[in-house]
Amino acid sequence: MILLADGPVCGCGNRGCAEALASRTAIERDIWAGIKAGRESQVPSLIKRDGRDRLTSGVLAEAYRNHDPLVTEVMSRAQFYLGLLVASTINFVDPQAVILGGGVVEAMGEDFLEPIRQVAQQYAVNRRDARTITIAAAKLRDHAALLGAAVYARQRLAGR
């Protein structure tokens, strides 16, 4: 879904897609761009301390909790766009719940979700009812795809 018409180029070729604005890849891109531009950040030292060669969700979460200014800025922007995505989903589909997953959500939990909820409620057409919609972290984590495939296979086999 396009959230910002003139936004960054997405892997799909469009500009301003949710993936290009709020994915872990987009967050990492923006943090490294900030560091390259001379912005101060704890990220390089945390990566080095952990003996890693790349930015992980755990490092993001730690830098965010340590109030790293660059990470906080980039994460806030991603949370805003995810909030817009959730609000658009609420406005279009009217779900009972919106479940978000992935490594960043798992590593950051409520610290990441609460700002998304606030933006979603602000931009929902029916703000009063939007407050009753559950916006939560996925509980199945890495097992979600496997369990989904198993349920799908079982349903297909039972239907024959």
Commentary on this structure:
There is one protein chain. The chain has 160 residues and is mostly helical. It has one domain (18-158): Nucleotidyltransferase, domain 5. The chain is 61% helix and 5% strand. A two-stranded parallel ribbon has the order 1-2. α2 runs antiparallel to α5 (69-93) and α5 packs across α7 (110-123). It is globular, with a radius of gyration of 18 Å.
CATH homologous superfamily placement: ATPase, nucleotide binding domain
**Mean pLDDT across all residues, rounded?**
92
Number of domains: 1
Secondary structure tally, helices? 9
Instruction: Assign a percent range to the helix content.
Output: 55-70%
Q: Report the top-level CATH class.
A: Alpha Beta
Spatial gap, N to C terminus? 35 Å
Largest β sheet strand count, sense and barrel closure: 2 strands, parallel
Q: Kindly estimate the percentage of residues that lie in beta strands according to DSSP.
A: 5-15%
